[in-house]
Amino acid sequence: MATDFYKRQDRARRNTSFLVLLFALAVIGIVGAVSAVTYFVLVEQQSTLAPLAGGYDAMGRPESFRWDAVVGAGVLTLAVILGASAVKGVQLRSGGGAGVAEHLGGMRLYPNSGGVVEQRLLNVVEEMALASGVPVPPVYLLEDEQGINAFAAGYSPSDAVVGVTRGCAETLSRDELQGVIAHEFSHILNGDMRLNIRMIGYLQGILLLGLIGQWLFRAFIYSGGGSRRSNSRGSGGSGGSAILVVLAVSLALIVLGALGSFMGGLIKAAISREREYLADASAVQFTRNPGGIGGALKRIGAAVTGGRLKAPAAAEASHMFFATGVWEGLSGLTATHPPLEKRILAIEPDWNGVFPETPAAGQAASAVGAAGAMGFSGGLSVAAAATVGAAGRPAEGSVPLDVVDHAAEHIGAPTREHRSYAQRLIESLPEELIDAAHEPFGARAVIYGLLLDRDPAVRKAQLAGLAQGAEAPVRELMHKLLPAIDAVDHRARLPLVDMTLPALKSLSTPQYVGFGNCLRLLVEADQRLGLFEWTLGQVLSRHLRPQYEKVRAPAVQYYGLQKLGAQVAQVLSTLAYVGGDDTQASAAFSDASCHFPELDVRLLPRDQCSLTALRGALDTLTHAAPKQRGRVVDACAAAICTDGEVTLREAELLRGVSDLLDCPMPPLLAGQKVAP
C-alpha cells in the first residue's frame, strides 16, 4: 500500500504542475482578449483617439497606430492577475488551514466546551488522526450551515484543519460521520490540500477582472454617465466618446470576468473529480464499511439543502468540499464533484437508486445523545485485540519482525485495525492525562513529562532547567502527572504527543516562545537525551512551528539519493547504534545499506552520530521525492530488525523518524497484513 501512497503523492505533484499550466494558458487567453478589445476600441474611437494614433489616412486607417497602448493594456491585465493571485496566496499562507476555515464561517471546537454532537465529532477526528499516524488537526464547526458537508484545509498535515457543517455533525450517524472524516483524511494523506489552497490563490487573479468590470459599470451608472453623455453631445462629442470607452471597457471586463470564472470552473473540475473518487475508495479502505460513506452520500441526496453552503466564500472553495457545496451550472462542465449517484454506485454497485428519508435535526441530535459521544461503534478486530492487554491497556513486549520489516508498506494506508486500535489506545490512557492533553495548560505539563529521560542523571539536569524556564503552576502539574506519564506504554507516547497538538496550537505567542525555550532546555540537558525522547520532541516541534512561525513546506529537490549519501549514512548510523554495541551496529548498518546499491555509504564512528547531525540529515532528506524517503524508512526498519527482536520503543522510534521524513506511518500492530 505504500506504493499507492507514493503514487498518490506523485499524482498530487503532477496535478500541481498541471494546474500551473492551465493557469498560464488561461492568463495568456485573457491577456490576449484584453489586448484585442483594446485594439478595436482604439480603432473605433477615431475622433477621440486620433492624436493618440497619430492621425488617419483617406481610408480611415491609422497611419502610425501606437501599439504601446495595446501592449500596455495587456501588461496591466497581466500585472492585475498575477498581483491578485500573489496577494491571495500570501493571505492564504499566513492564515493556513485555520484561515480558510474561518473565512468560510467556521468556529473552532474545544474539548469539553460543547454538547454531545460536538464531542462525538472531536472523538472521531482524534481517533482517525492517531490511526493514520498524523497529528490531530483542530476541528472547525460551520455553525450556520445546515447542508451536509465537510472539508480539510492546510498546506501540510502539520497545518491541517478539518471543517464540518452543523448539518453534517447532527444529521449523520456515527458510521456515516466516520466515512466523511475518513474521506477528508485521505485528502490530508494524499497531498491534495496544498493543491486546493493553491488553486484558490491562482484563480483569484482571473476572477478579479470581472469584479473590476462590475465596479466600473456600477460607477458609470451611479455617477449619471448616461446624462453626461447627452450633455456632452453639444460640446463636440469628445466627452461622450470617453464615456463610451469607459462603458465598453467595463462591459468587456465583465464579459472577460465571466469567461475567467468559466475557465476557473473548468480548471477546478479537471483536477478535482478524479481525486473525489480516490478519496471515497480510501475512506472505504480505512473504515472497511462501504455503508458509512455511502450512507452519508445518500443523506446528502435526500436532504432538501443537500451539501450546499451559504457562506459568501463557498464558491471559491467549492473544490475542497466533501460534496457539491454551490450551484455549478446545468451542463456539469464545471462541476467539481462527480454526480452523487455515480459516487454511490462506485461504492455500492447494488444500490437501488433510492435516497433514504433524512431525520429532522432534533431527532438526529437525540439519536447521538442516546448513543453517546463515542467516536466509533463496534468491537475490536482480532488483530487489534491481540495488541491490547487486560483492562484495555496496550500489551507490553515486542512487535513481530515481519510487521516492522514491512512497515513502509503501511505508510499513508491506515486500515480498520488501526482505527480500532487507536480507539482502544485512548481508552487505555488515564483520564487525567487525556484531560490534561486537551487543554493548553495541561498539554505543556504532559509534554515536559514525556521528554524527561529515564536516566536519573539526565532527568535531574532536565528538571533543573525546567525550574528556571517553566512556569511554576505548569511544573507543579507535571510533577502531579509524572507517575501516570512514566507508566504510559511506549506505544502510547507518540499518540499522546499528537493528542496535545490542538491544545498547544492555541497557545499565545509569548506562551509558545516560553514553551519552545523549555523544549530546548529538555533536549540540551547534559547532551545525553535518549534518541526516543529526542524524536518525540522533534515531532512535536515540526508540527507546532507552522502555527507560529513562517515555515515553508519542503519542496522536492532530489528525485534520487545519489547526492544524499552523507545524509543517508548519518541516519542509518545513528539508528544502528541504538541499543547495541559496535559489532551489532556494524551488522545493522550492513543490513540497512543494502537498500541503496547505488550509494557508497559507510558506518560513521559513534562520536559523529550526534542528535544535531541527525536533525540536519533528516531536514535535508525531507527534500527528496516521496518514493526515495520511503526507501530510507524501509532501510531504517531493516536496521532495527537486525538483532531479531523489535521492542515497542524501537518500533515507535521508527514511526517517529518516519514522521520526521513526512511519511505518516500508522501504528505497527501484531497480526496486521504484510506483503508476502
Automatic annotation (TrEMBL):
<keyword id="KW-1133">Transmembrane helix</keyword>
<dbReference type="GO" id="GO:0006508">
    <property type="term" value="P:proteolysis"/>
</dbReference>
<feature type="transmembrane region" description="Helical">
    <location>
        <begin position="20"/>
        <end position="42"/>
    </location>
</feature>
<keyword id="KW-0862">Zinc</keyword>
<dbReference type="GO" id="GO:0046872">
    <property type="term" value="F:metal ion binding"/>
</dbReference>
<keyword id="KW-0378">Hydrolase</keyword>
<keyword id="KW-0472">Membrane</keyword>
<keyword id="KW-0482">Metalloprotease</keyword>
<protein>
    <recommendedName>
        <fullName>Peptidase M48 domain-containing protein</fullName>
    </recommendedName>
</protein>
<feature type="domain" description="Peptidase M48">
    <location>
        <begin position="118"/>
        <end position="348"/>
    </location>
</feature>
<feature type="transmembrane region" description="Helical">
    <location>
        <begin position="241"/>
        <end position="267"/>
    </location>
</feature>
<feature type="transmembrane region" description="Helical">
    <location>
        <begin position="200"/>
        <end position="221"/>
    </location>
</feature>
<dbReference type="GO" id="GO:0004222">
    <property type="term" value="F:metalloendopeptidase activity"/>
</dbReference>
<dbReference type="InterPro" id="IPR050083">
    <property type="entry name" value="HtpX_protease"/>
</dbReference>
<keyword id="KW-0479">Metal-binding</keyword>
<keyword id="KW-1003">Cell membrane</keyword>
<keyword id="KW-0645">Protease</keyword>
<keyword id="KW-0812">Transmembrane</keyword>
<feature type="transmembrane region" description="Helical">
    <location>
        <begin position="69"/>
        <end position="87"/>
    </location>
</feature>
<dbReference type="InterPro" id="IPR001915">
    <property type="entry name" value="Peptidase_M48"/>
</dbReference>
<dbReference type="Pfam" id="PF01435">
    <property type="entry name" value="Peptidase_M48"/>
</dbReference>
